[in-house]
Amino acid sequence: MKKLHAGKKILTICFTFFVFGAHSQVPLLYNKNEHITKAGSGYKFTEGPAVAPDGRIFFTDQPNDKIYIWNEKGNKINIFLNACERSNGTYFDKKGNLLACADLHNCLVAFDPDGEMKILAQNFGGQHLNGPNDLWIAPNQGIYFTDPYYQRDYWEPGHQELQDKRAVYYRSPEGKVTRVISDYKQPNGLIGTPDGKTLYVSDINDGKIWKYDIQPDGSLTSKTFFAPEGSDGMTIDCLGNVYLTNKVVSVFNPEGKNIARIEVPEQPSNVCFGGKKRNILFITARTSVYMLKMNVRGVK
Length: 300
Known about the structure:
The protein is built from no helices and 26 strands. By secondary structure, it is an all-beta fold. The two termini are about 30 Å apart. The N terminus is likely disordered.
């Protein structure tokens, strides 16, 4: 078992909702006697964990084209879909649909609770997308998604990168897709605050996280440097701390200070909070998925 680094004490109250500005001493992110435990193994490359309204976590095994469900009760994992368009990053909308970045056909899609699929976005400027990778749904149900380019061996021969930028897009609640970031080397993970005011985005090939102010029309302003690390997947807790995945799970407070580095037996790819109380940090990491019980909770 690898050593865990719990980080420093936090001076912010964590209620069951998102709080900024109130200050009082609280426990560490997790107790020192808590350990990373393996929830499941035997996968090829796990990704895209997303928490359902009831606390279950859905995650993907993209090379094997499957979506699984982890249930806190009994620590059980079951299959949700055997064919999922090579889904990667996922997120639940308010209606209980699982949205996914599915790059088999370069799409952003939605799966209803029965697994029926609907395409939400596939093209921009008359050309197919590169391959949507990660997404976050704003409170107004507008969708931000990254569109890097990673060559896939399951694409048909002759498949080409047609977009002139590796960009970040916004799909409005009405279905209009606009490009909101176009100056990255390779956008990847992203996450927003539950008040819908701030978006964090990773330029993974440049090793940086940037944050933006979200405007009412979905556009982004006030690009500000946040952290000197790239990230695959990302999540946020009720204190506003941002969790990154690279060689470890790296945690930055809202001011951009690194407060914890959580080592995982395998290199993490993505992370989210789940369980009935949203106090379980669920980590996808190559061939396995892992858990860590936390003193803080994820946001709803």
